[in-house]
Amino acid sequence: MSAARKHTALPKAQILIEALPWLTRHNGKTVVIKFGGNAMIDEELKAAFAQDVVFLRQAGLKPVVVHGGGPQISAQLDKQGLVSEFKAGLRVTTPEAMDVVRMVLAGQVQRELVGLLNQHGPLAVGMTGEDAHTITATQHRPTIEGELVDIGRVGEITAIDTGAIQALLDDGRIPVISSIARSADDNHVYNVNADTAAAALAAALNAETLMVLTDVEGLYEDWPNSDDVISRLTAGELEKLLPELSSGMVPKMQGCLHAVRNGVETARVIDGRVQHSILLEIFTDEGIGTMVVPDAQPGTVAQPGTEGEA
């Protein structure tokens, strides 16, 4: 091999070496990834997402994918002449609409994602929160102007059973989970916010990391006056910011807060519009997006290297 050819290959080796500490740190750890936003619609982003998840699996991590499907549900409801109404930022879900939600999530979005992942090997297995009682929910009634409001089959998670997911992970598979739940009492099926479901599963699985794909770069310091992104903040700092956040970011950041307050080491909001954003976040020194970490315990000292990506 000529010196020139050796030289052109060198940057590849340097990139791999930069990833080594992160590969070592994350080896064998569970990472829950909430798949959503533009990454669900754009074909190139979908393909890149599948590559990233398979890469994590082949690099020794245990990825779990949780997804919703708002745009696809809206499109199918329109096609069937069912009106989409939102109250308190949540879709009013009639029994008829719930049938559509279930069909779209489990029969369309999940199938496509499983297919993309399985282009790389017999890895992905699709399931919903109904399967093996993985997610149990009760009816969620939001308070609007001081009144409890019935918005139909929208669920609030009451219990998580990770047995089926853990069995798949132990078998080397990639679980792909649709955010649907069943109740313990009335046997109804409920639509559950996918950000909330991903956070609850991350905590129950004792995951190392929760990653939430969004259509923004992360949490902005002073939007709309500035597009500077907060790269790292503690649970306590995030809690103070929650009342000021836009409605779309609230369930994502509440999910991050729930995760790190319940044993997950880091929760990250990353830009799903950037190809391979998952790999950039997990395996590079800079990282991208916003990382939420637990509040420092009294008497502990921050570990070296935790200021950037961890």
TrEMBL record:
<dbReference type="InterPro" id="IPR041727">
    <property type="entry name" value="NAGK-C"/>
</dbReference>
<keyword id="KW-0808">Transferase</keyword>
<feature type="domain" description="Aspartate/glutamate/uridylate kinase">
    <location>
        <begin position="29"/>
        <end position="271"/>
    </location>
</feature>
<feature type="binding site">
    <location>
        <begin position="69"/>
        <end position="70"/>
    </location>
    <ligand>
        <name>substrate</name>
    </ligand>
</feature>
<keyword id="KW-0418">Kinase</keyword>
<dbReference type="InterPro" id="IPR001057">
    <property type="entry name" value="Glu/AcGlu_kinase"/>
</dbReference>
<keyword id="KW-0963">Cytoplasm</keyword>
<feature type="site" description="Transition state stabilizer">
    <location>
        <position position="252"/>
    </location>
</feature>
<dbReference type="InterPro" id="IPR037528">
    <property type="entry name" value="ArgB"/>
</dbReference>
<dbReference type="InterPro" id="IPR036393">
    <property type="entry name" value="AceGlu_kinase-like_sf"/>
</dbReference>
<dbReference type="Pfam" id="PF00696">
    <property type="entry name" value="AA_kinase"/>
</dbReference>
<dbReference type="InterPro" id="IPR001048">
    <property type="entry name" value="Asp/Glu/Uridylate_kinase"/>
</dbReference>
<keyword id="KW-0028">Amino-acid biosynthesis</keyword>
<comment type="similarity">
    <text>Belongs to the acetylglutamate kinase family. ArgB subfamily.</text>
</comment>
<dbReference type="InterPro" id="IPR004662">
    <property type="entry name" value="AcgluKinase_fam"/>
</dbReference>
<protein>
    <recommendedName>
        <fullName>Acetylglutamate kinase</fullName>
        <ecNumber>2.7.2.8</ecNumber>
    </recommendedName>
</protein>
<keyword id="KW-0067">ATP-binding</keyword>
<comment type="function">
    <text>Catalyzes the ATP-dependent phosphorylation of N-acetyl-L-glutamate.</text>
</comment>
<dbReference type="GO" id="GO:0003991">
    <property type="term" value="F:acetylglutamate kinase activity"/>
</dbReference>
<comment type="pathway">
    <text>Amino-acid biosynthesis; L-arginine biosynthesis; N(2)-acetyl-L-ornithine from L-glutamate: step 2/4.</text>
</comment>
<keyword id="KW-0055">Arginine biosynthesis</keyword>
<feature type="binding site">
    <location>
        <position position="91"/>
    </location>
    <ligand>
        <name>substrate</name>
    </ligand>
</feature>
<keyword id="KW-0547">Nucleotide-binding</keyword>
<feature type="site" description="Transition state stabilizer">
    <location>
        <position position="34"/>
    </location>
</feature>
<feature type="binding site">
    <location>
        <position position="191"/>
    </location>
    <ligand>
        <name>substrate</name>
    </ligand>
</feature>
